[in-house]
C-alpha cells in the first residue's frame, strides 16, 4: 500500500491574470482609491463614476443628508424633507400642499409653489438661520461658487431610467437636491470652460445612494422641462398644473431654489 503524499495542485501559469477590483464589496471602494476623503459615500460614488480615484480634486464641498424613499408622485416633497433631515416628513408636507391647493397627489409642477412651501416649512420647523431664493441659470460661476460655499439646491429635471438627467421635454420630471460639488482640476478662474470638470452630488427619492452628475447635464435637463407628460392623463390621477404649464414662468423650466445657511 502506497504512503506517498498527494500530489499538490499545479502552480498558476505565469500569464495568469488576477482581475483588479475597485470595490471590496458591491458598493464599498478599495482602500487605495479616493483617499482624499473619509466620507464613505463620496468614495463610493467617485469610484463608481471613475472620478478622482488617485488624486484629490482641486475643490469640493459636500453636505450629508439622510436618504428618504418616495411613495407615489412625491419626489419634490421628499427632496424638501431630505433637505430638512426629516424634521418635517413627506406625509406632513403632503397634507400642507393639498391644503394649500398646490397638489392633489404630491406632485409639484411649479417652482414658485415650491418656494412658498419652503417658506411655510421653515416657519413650521422654526428654521431662522437659513435663507432661500428662487433662481435661474444653474450652470453659472455664481452658482458654482455658492455650492462651494455650502449652498444646497432644490432642482427639477428630467430623469432617465437610471434617474440621471436626460432630455425628454419634461415627460419624466423629477426633483432632487444638490448637496455638493466637486471641481476636478484647477479651472484658473474659468469654471465654465470645461463641463467635464464640474460634477455635483445629488440625492432624490428613488434611490438610497448618493448620485454624481455633471452640473451642465442637470442644467440642460432643467431647461428642457417644457410640458406635462400627456400619458399621465391616463393613469387615473388628477394633477394640478400651474397657469402656463410646466414650461411657463409659473412652472419648472429653467428655475430652481437655492438654500443657504442650513
Note down, in words, how this protein is organized:
This is Actin maturation protease. It catalyses: N-terminal N(alpha)-acetyl-L-cysteinyl-L-aspartyl-[protein] + H2O = N-terminal L-aspartyl-[protein] + N-acetyl-L-cysteine. Keywords: Aminopeptidase, Hydrolase, Protease. One of its GO terms (molecular function) is aminopeptidase activity. Belongs to the ACTMAP family. It is a single chain. The protein has 262 residues and is of the alpha+beta class. Helix content is 23%, strand content 18%. The chain is built from six helices and eight strands. The protein has helices spanning 40-49, 75-83, 90-100, 111-124, 141-148, 215-222, and strands spanning 59-62, 131-135, 152-159, 165-166, 173-183, 198-204, 211-214, 256-260. Strands 1, 2, 3, 4, 5, 6, 7 and 8 form an eight-stranded antiparallel beta sheet that branches. A hairpin with a 6-residue loop joins β6 and β7. α2 (75-83) crosses α3. The chain is globular and about 50 Å long. Mean pLDDT is 90; it is low at 11-27.
Query: Strand tally, please?
Result: 8
Gap from first CA to last CA: 81 Å
**Number of helical runs?**
6
What gross morphology would you assign? globular
- Based on secondary structure, the structural category is alpha+beta
What value does the average pLDDT take?
Answer: 90
Please indicate the percent range of residues in DSSP E strands (runs of 2 or more): 15-25%
Low-pLDDT runs of 5+ residues are 11-27
Portion of residues within helices: 10-25%
Largest sheet: 8 strands, antiparallel
The succession of helices and strands, N to C, reads HEHHHEHEEEEEHE
Radius of gyration: 23 Å
